[in-house]
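user: can you give me the structure for this one chain? tokens are fine.
assistant: on it. calling the predictor now.
[tool input]
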Amino acid sequence: MSDAADGESVSGATDDEGPAVLVLSGHRTEKLVDPLETTGEAITTVTNTADGLAGRFVGVLRDGIRHARSEEVDVVVGDHGGVVGFAAAILGTLFGLPVVIRIGGEIWQINREKAAEFRADGEYGQYALISAFRAMNWFTFRRAEGFLVLTDHLAVLTVQETGCDPRAVRVVGVPIDVDAYQEASGGDAREALSIEESTVVTTVTNLRFRGKYEGVRRTLPAVERLLDAHPDTAFVVAGDGRYREQLLDDIDERFDAETRERIYVPGFVDDVRSLYAASTVVCYVSFIDGFGNVVREGQAAGKPVVTNDGYGMREQVEDGVTGVLVDADADAVFTAVDDLLTDPDRRAALGEAGLESVTERGDTERVGRGLYDAIVDLVRRAR
């Protein structure tokens, strides 16, 4: 069964076994919808990625109600909080259905930080909006019978923030298209950014969040030493957001003009796979990250990854085997990256092991089965 409209798509599959799942999503489909649809189970999905939060909310709720009225539904799954999770909670309340919410990041800390930033900067419209989101999430999470999260780190946070029973939380990762990363050409990124250096240390981040900006900022002393020790090495920071200009100021203040020419801060990079392919080492330090997707992307590209031993990142890396875990300080980062830049055999071994690990963990069918089985367990517990 399928139908589509502007900004909205609905698809489904039926089977005689297991609960019938109605998934509401306002995001790209590859993380939740696509893997679930590989299971062959009774999955109906409503996806609305239209611009405008109000339109997305109305569209998802309207089509969710239509499906709940016209076919058998045993559980509603909302992809994240916000307007889609709120729609799932309302739908569950209207039809007396259990609700499961997928959480993909540290939304509580992010929303608290954003609220404080908007209020301090006098952005009262944005402050009102984030406050509304927090209120919606409060209702949604109180209504939910279960949660799907990406890491043990997020599982602990979910219990702490919602007060739910730990048994109501299941950890299931997300798939990744390893082939797409393996097929990417590093030459495209080199040409686009005019990178001439032979080796490249890359970080990909989201500079909308202070914790991620702080991760890069605290790495700069290590970068200074690395670029001094390796004169044919470039450092690339890909990512955009409100802290990008502040980061540029930090870089301009720390580095002399000659060294500064080997630091690239292009903002958002559309072809990030090519950038990973061009990289010699991927280095990611962050103080807010429920999952650590940059780590997985670097592994999918077959690159050695250095990341701080915390948050969701540590769960993506077996230290010394599929990557390197370090303390979040400049000395530790310098030592780890410097060792890799001078040891191509170790770089290759870590890259190969990381690729093998992420290929297994990120298999779409494996993730889909894990998601469905987790939903089944949560529904049984709710009953």
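assistant: here you go. The first strand starts at residue 2 and ends at 5. The chain has two domains: 2-175+364-377, 178-361.
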